[in-house]
Design brief:
This protein is an alpha/beta fold. It folds into two domains: about 5-175 and about 355-370, Rossmann fold, CATH 3.40.50.2000; about 190-340, Rossmann fold (3-Layer(aba) Sandwich). It is built from 14 helices and 13 strands. It has helices at about 10-25, 50-55, 75-95, 105-115, 135-145, 155-165, 180-185, 190-195, 225-230, 250-260, 275-285, 295-300, 330-340, 360-370, and strands at about 5-10, 30-40, 60-65, 100, 120-125, 150, 170-175, 205-210, 235-240, 265-270, 285-290, 305-310, 320-325. α3 packs across α4 and α4 (about 105-115) packs parallel to α5 (about 135-145). It is globular and about 60 Å long. The chain starts with a strand and ends in a 16-residue tail after the last helix.
Length: about 375
Amino acid sequence: MKRKICVITGTRAEYGLLYWLLKEIQEDPELELQIIATGMHLSPEFGNTYMQIEDDGFVINDKVEMLLSGDTPSAVAKSIGIGTMGFSSSLLRLNPDLIVILGDRFEALSAAQTALILNIPIAHIHGGEVTYGAYDDSIRHAITKMSYLHFVTTDEHRKRVIRLGEHPSRVFNVGAPGIDNILKLKLLSKIDLEKELNVSLVDPVFLITQHPTTLSENPIEGVVELLEALEYFGKATMIFTKANADNNGREINKLISEFVNLSPMKRKLFDSLGQLRYLSLISYANVVIGNSSSGLLEAPYLNTPTVNIGNRQKGRVRPQSVFDAQPSVKEIISMINLALNYTFKQDDSYKLFGDGNTSKKIKTIIKEKVINSLMKEFYDGEII
């Protein structure tokens, strides 16, 4: 019988990272791909991005509605509960041999805790990382302890997962799946991208994504300061993508929308760019700005510097092309100017997250790994 692999996806960004793994599983005759779409994928407010999954030739086996209309901490907590009920029914019906979860969002937590109780093995991607500025950090480590297989992006992250008590034989450094997209996708030409976005990409081009800092007393930390700093660069082309559906994410999107409407010819806000347009835009941007992990992972591989604002990504490994700025107007302006004048060296020092082919490596392991028991002893031994 084919091994049934159920991949759970809740956001546009996470789906983009999972795309090539989905293709690998779909094309393997010994595996059966199942997909559950949830979270922002099912929200008109965030672009109904489940349709992109279907347009890419995948079958969505189930949809788990879980997002409430509010973005308060209470609404997010209730969404986790709703998701747990939905995943319980969905996973019982699909009866997968293994579920795959990427990252650290609350949708992933809801799916993981359900699978744990149902005794379904979990394969977790991007564990062992640290981001002190968001509750995602705790969610990530919690999912690590619920998971059986671990696919990490660096040796440092592998060691951290093992220090959490996971046996070295189940922790694999495969690199970052986002690098597969950079190597495999044929990026759009600048002319085609301008047509897709309906904007002239006149230098300097800023690609901006600012998510809530959920562990801050002020979850929209840095947004007002960022927008004021961007006014200083009035001639720049500014492309924004929406904040996630985390605490106060809608408030951030409201502020950005008002800012964009002041200069609609030079500023654009998108619900979702999709992986192809997003990576193409990174390649033509003069600087990536905000607090998205893509500025630390993918942007350096495309030789684009990043201004990382605030504490959301604090603790995450980053190359020297990333300029950290506290959420103050003066410092953000200063770091943007440094980034605009940054020159990449002709070496591989920016490539901290592997050399690609990550999805094939993951597919091979989840296909061949024998799982006889989910009982795990806490590993206190040497890190090997």
